[in-house]
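To whoever is covering the structure queue this week,

Two jobs came back overnight. Logging them here so there's a record in the thread.

Job A:
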Amino acid sequence: MKFYQLKQDPSPRYTGYLNAKHKWGLPGVEPCPTCKCGGAGGGLEYPCVDLSGLPPDELQKLSDSWPVPPKEIERLRELVRPLAPKDALLEPGARFGPLEGTGLGYFGQLFMQEPWALYMRREALERLREAGMRGLQGCPIKVRFRTKHAPELLEMQMETQGQYHPDCLPSDRKPPCPTCGNDFLKRPNPIILDGASLPTELDLFRLKQTWMLIVANERFVDTVRRLELDGVLFEELAVR
C-alpha cells in the first residue's frame, strides 16, 4: 500500500480564502523549568467537538490562548476529554468546535489553506463516502461567504495514526525531557513512514508524531482522481 502527503494545489484558479478560527482551544503552556520549551503547537483541530455545554467560566479559559501552568493544562485537558474522540491528542493549542468567520474566492472540491487542515465541499464528501472511503468525518463550518455561489464546506476531523521509521530520525536525537515529556521531534527530511504503524482501517489520517502532516493511502488518492475531485495535490511518501 502506498501513502501520500496532501498539499494545497497552488493553481491561480483557486482563490478561496477563509478568515476564520475555531472558537475554543487548549491554551499554550508556560516554559518547562528543565528544557525551557513551552508555547502551543498547531494543527490539532477537532471541529466536531462541541464544548458549549461546559460552564461559562471554563469556556472563557478555553477561549484564551495565553500560556498557563502545566497543572492547569492537565485540568483543562481532563475537562475536555469526555467530549473528545477516544485517543484524541489533547495537546496545548488543540482547537475545538466549527470554524467561524468569513470567506471569499473560489474553492476546489477539496481545499487546504494550511497544510494541517483539510476542507471538502459537501458533495465531494458524499461521493467519497459512497465510493467506500473510510474514516471521513466532516463538520460544517460557520463561515459567511462574500460570493454569489457560496460553497458548503466541511472541515475534516481526522484521527492521529502512524509514526516515522527510525531510519529517517537523527541518530543524535535528544531523549525526552524528564519533566514535561517533550521529545524534541522535528519533521525529518526526507520523510520515511513506519509501515507497521500505519492504519489499515483508515484512508485518511494525521500522522501521530507530527500531526500537521495529513496522510492518505492509495485507495483514497485513486478515488479522488477517478472522481476528478480537484483542489489538492498528492506527494508519495517513502514507507519501510
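Job B:
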Amino acid sequence: MNVGFVGLGTMGGAMAANLARAGFAVRAWNRTAGRAAELADLGVTLARTAAAAASDADVVITIVSDTPDVEAVLFGPEGVADGARPGTIVVDMSTISPSATREFAARLSERGIRLLDAPVSGGSEGAKKGTLSIFVGGDPSALEEARPVLAAMGTTITHLGPVGSGQAAKAINQVILAGTYLGVAEGIVLGLKAGLDVEALVAALSGSAAQSWVLANRSGRMLANDYPLGFKVSLHRKDLGIALQLARETGASLPVAALAETIESGLIARGHGDDDMSALARAIRSLSALDG
C-alpha cells in the first residue's frame, strides 16, 4: 500500500518513520524544507509538493498545526486535492475544528476523495513508540481500508461516528487533560508548601485513586520547574479553543477548561508557549510564591 504523508513535525516525523518501518511505501512532504531528512535512511521518498506526495497514494496522512494549515495543505496550490486520485482516503490526524472538518470532507467528496478525521493522543512519546490513541470519524468502510496504516502508528483505534466525531473526541481528551494537569500541578505545589518529601508523595499517590499518566510522567518536571518540549503549551491552548467553541455550540459549560485556557494564555504572553504543557505548574508555583 502506498502512503502519502504531509507534515513532518515532532509528531509527524516519528509517525512517518513508523510507517516506513512497517513496510509501507511512504512519500512525504513538509512545508519547511529539510525537516526529518533522516527519514530517507528508512526508505521514505521526500516529495516536492503535497500534490506529489498524494499522487500515487492509496492513503494520505495529514498532520499539521491548525485548521487553516489543514485547509492550505489540502486545497492550496499543489495541495493534496490536486494530486490525489478519486477513491483515495485522506486521513487528517491534525487537531482542528469539527465543523471545518465536515466542510473539508464535503469539498474532497466532490473530487471523489474520502476523508477520515483521526486526531491522536499520546504525545511525542507515543508517536515515537507507535502507541498513539487514535480517535476516528468518518465512513466505517474507509476506516477498515485505512486501518493497517493507522495500526502502524497507534495501538488504540476507535471509530466514534461520522466525519467530525474524531475531532470532537480529541477536544474532550484535551479538556480532561487540562483538568488533570492542573490538579497534579496544584497537588505538587501544595506538597512543596506543606514541606513534604514530594518524591515520596508522588510514589504514594501512584498507588492511590489519584494515580494518572500525568502524575507518573510529568510530576518530575513540575517538581524541578523545568519543562522540556513534549506537547507545547501553545498547541494545547489552541486545542482548548476548539473545545470551548464546541462547548458554546452545544451549550456545555467547561469552567476548568476555561481556567486552563486563561492560565496558558498568560504563560504564552510571558514567552513559555513552547514549553511542555506541564508548565501549567509554572503558573501555580508563581501564584503560590514558590519562585521569584
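Note for Job B: The chain has a mean pLDDT of 96.

Please reply-all if you pick these up so we don't duplicate work.
Q.
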